[in-house]
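Extended Data, panel c. Modelled sequence:
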Amino acid sequence: MKRSKLATVLLLAIAAAMGAPMAVAQEAGDTATDGAGGAAAVGEAVPTGEEALQVPFIDLNIREPQNGQEVALSVQLLLILAVLSLAPSIIILTTSFLRIAIVFDFVKRALSLQQVPPTQVLMGVALFMTMFIMWPTLEEIYDDAFAPFRDGEIGIEEAYGETIGPLRVFMYRQMREDPQSVRLFMRMGGLERPQNLADVPTRVLLPAFVLHELTVAFKIGILLFIPFIIIDMVVASTLMSMGMIMLPPIMISLPFKLILFVLVDGWNLITQQLVASFGGF
């Protein structure tokens, strides 16, 4: 009986939402029965006309552009949506996040740790360190690009120039001592030798910066692996000389690695050196 009443109420609601006439609602209400088996006058409670349930009307129109300005606006909207969808990749590849994340992963592998600390924790630490390192650049972008654009003082093209400028300076500052990556992409692109940073196109600077960050991160990772590899070799040689071949060396070397890492205050040393490697600190 309860199911019959529920179905009737749902039918009445659908009929009212679709603007059905009162007769349809009444016909649906007549099919309901009360607890004694008699007819339930449910249809009389359904409002009609202006009192019926109002459903929001959504209208999406697609038409041909009337002038070039409308075409340019549509293209700009598409570009903004594309940039928003690529925002995580832009944050990773144009900031200090790439180097920090790779170094932290090397530390985890060098210590032979599988689950501790979790990858999400390391990526969170890398994100906050990236915010700390990039804060002066972000402040410059906000003051020179976002705030004037929000207040209507500059257009979108000028805002883009003021945004990409500080990022270009940051990326070029990391490669100033070793511009091999810039030379590589300039040579592959058939471009002339640049005289200063302004002569290096952004399409060259971006992949050069990514390649440089990968190289630096791997160099730091190799230096981190050396002391822990020595511990693994010593433990493996000791176990072999004692005839304990069946005992995995990693089970014995892991505590010694952790003890060494804690005694030298590893996290603070790595964090300090990582931040200092970007300059300006």
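Residues 2-51 form one domain. This feature is highlighted in the accompanying rendering.
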